[in-house]
Predict the 3D structure of the following.
Amino acid sequence: MKKAFITGINGQDGSYLTEYLLGLGYEVHGIVRRNSVPEHQQSRIELARENLHVSYGDLLDTSGLYKLLSNIQPDEIYNLAAQSHVRISFDVPQFTAQTNALGALNLLEAYRNSCPQAKYYQASSSEMFGTSVESDNYQRETTPLKPTSPYGCAKVFAYNITRNYRKSYNLHAVNGILFNHESPRRGSNFVTNKVVKAAVLIKKGKADILELGNMDAYRDWGHSKDYVRAMHMIINHDIADDFVVATGESHSVREMTEYVFSKLDMNYKDYVVQNPKFLRPEELPYLRGDSSRLRKTFNWTPEYTFESLMDEMIEFWMQQIK
Ligand code: G4F
């Protein structure tokens, strides 16, 4: 039985990855940070499951990471934990850097010293590209990194230190560069779930308006379930390498909002107002990923389209809000 170790196991991706790996017959270990409301730790994942072992842990607690990895001796390590909200990274830049940058280094150190035969996956992000776009309007593995947020800057460090450890210590350490990926499990302060939840509340007469920031940013939105399959393919490639994971389709926040409201027979213009509180000091204007290397190497293709992703989220909130 293969063993996986996942940081961020109770996040959107961590929970889907856990379900995917348990389905493949893995023994899954994960860490959660201590929270004063323990119920929050199981909001996305049923913790009492066969072959699933969850411990308290933190990317900033290197000795704890070392102890866990020494005892578990995993075959695969997935570093998915992060302060994952880009706008909030402007409010807590140092915490973001400590967790997303130094946290990755702490985990790499624990891995190198306790189980260097394991494979390591770093959750890298399209936010690292920042303002960089190729002349054909895509970002790919070779696109320069010009981040526009403390989150993006910290992720660039984690990406580079993963590559550096791979070369320096001959480790099987890889990066998946994931473009935005959503699902009903997405936090409701990210724009897709925020829009869907608010639109359903308005539809059901429980809210009047939706306040948003910049509606003219473009994102390449896929489904988290499709992207965790890609993570497993990337870490298990015979050569340690880095891959972009994206749909190749880009929509503006405005287009996404229009789609959601019109699915509910409403016009978004009647309900959406801009609140400067949701604008960012520096915005990343455009993302569209070229994942042809991933598709060619592993025959990966996403099962969800932009429309089926948004429809699933609408259906989820229609069931939740009675
Ligand atoms: O949903 P978002 O907050 O996602 P963002 O900033 O693109 O980051 C996500 O994707 C990254 C991959 O590129 C991940 F690395 C990261 O962890 C996270 O998962 O915002 C998307 C867009 C932005 O342009 C933002 O300015 O939506 C715009 N937006 C407009 N109004 C808003 C709002 N975003 C949020 N969260 N809330 C708003 O009211």
In short: Residues 259 and 307 are 8 Å apart (CA to CA). The first strand starts at residue 3 and ends at 7. The chain has two domains: 3-181+221-245, 189-219+251-286+305-320.
